[in-house]
Amino acid sequence: MIDDVLFGKPLISLITVGFAGIIIWHLLSRQRPTTRLVVQILFFAAMTLILVGSGIEPHRFQGYESEDPQALLVIVAKTLWWIHLAWAVIGFIRLYLVLEGSPREARLLQDLVIGVVYIGMALSVVAFVFGVPIGTLVATSGVVAIILGLALQNTLADVFSGIALTLGRPYIIGDWILLSDGTEGRVVESNWRATHILTSANNVVVLPNSFLAKLGLTNVSRPDESHLLVLTIRIAPTRMPASVRQVMATALASCNSIVREPPPVVALKGLDATALELELQFRVTSPSQRVTARNEVLDLIYRHCKSAGLLLAVPAAASILTGDLPTEESARPPRVTPLELIEAIPIFATLTSDEKQKLAETTAVREFRKGDVIVREGEMLPSLMMVRAGIVAARHGDEERGRLAPGDFFGETGLLAGMQEVCTLEALTPVIAYEIDQEAFAPLLSERPTLAEEIADHLASRAERFRNGALPPEHARNAHAILKTIRTIFRA
User: Fold this and answer.
1) Which of 143, 227, 263, 453 is the most exposed place for a label (fewest CB within 10 A)?
2) CB 364: neighbour CB atoms within 10 A?
3) CA–CA dist 491, 366 (Å, integer)
4) What is the pLDDT of residues 304-319, one digit of tens each?
């Protein structure tokens, strides 16, 4: 019965099985590649069995009579057989051609092999189904191939360059790269033709792979994304180079935007009558943090130089008389009195000169040795302290959350709202601080409610800035609580 159905009309049976296999193969989920392969093999085996049983040889061309009614059926049947053979081979390739740990290269290799399989299937159909001599076809199509090659020269160059970049893997999606022509950004897409780079200006630059393959490429994200910055500073030669170098090292140690390990480096580059030139080398977590880190480092260098009495050197190109240059004997370092520090803090900018002077007169000088604990976590500090010199580390538990440098202040939580400190504050270096107690601050808060709000707002913004790793989130809640308490008091 089965023999009659299959071999009674073999061509119709083969075509029916072929189209049924195509329909069922498309209905099966792509998430089940093994099942699809098994089904494909079963249909291909059934088609092969029908061909062998009916005496049809798909790998040989058998001439057709122009008036033979079965000629079309033979062409369709043999074409379907070759298509199913190609799909069965492709199923094996998709399932078993895998490069462990290299999915990108495996996918590229699969695509290349599958392309060869399709080309082979097409040539087999042309040769064994339609009887076209492949050798003659290839020879006569040489001129066409040359014309197409010249017309598609740039496209083919992009494709082959894309293959080379994929196999070489100089970068992957998400890497930050720097090209020799100055283009810099993060790779957001890479295909056969081009690579898309998102720059720091939030623009997408599309570079053809053939152009990209000719450029020198630096992968900033490897071996990790930490990025080295180099900053040159010129200081007036009014102190010994070792002392100046120590001040620069202290400034870098107080920076919250740079990487602690490996530690930053301060190198002496040159010394003449006009300046001591130093090179600061430090790392940031990613290239996107370069501007933030550079701004903070420059701000801290200014503050530490002012605190240590160092003078910035005039530009190298400036035309000045040598006799006017400051020396170690004649230089007058800038003073850092309580009044000048108060004037340098933005939250006191709205005070009048008399109010600043009165506040400065009530200021007491506090000195701490290296390693001294200024206030412990959970304790209240009922005074405002302004860092005159040195570095103060803020620790929450065993984790360091941030550092305070000259010009920073702390203790506002206890002074304004009577709250406990959420961080332990410890002197990393010898620290000099100016202290303003509650008694001295009370008249100002009564006369200027906006001053208290500005301090609370400053605390809130500082907590927001340190939310992702510097100071703990409790600071934000304290800041809002302080602001709410202050507004309640002064509106009553």
Assistant:
1) 143
2) 13
3) 35
4) 988 888 888 888 766 5
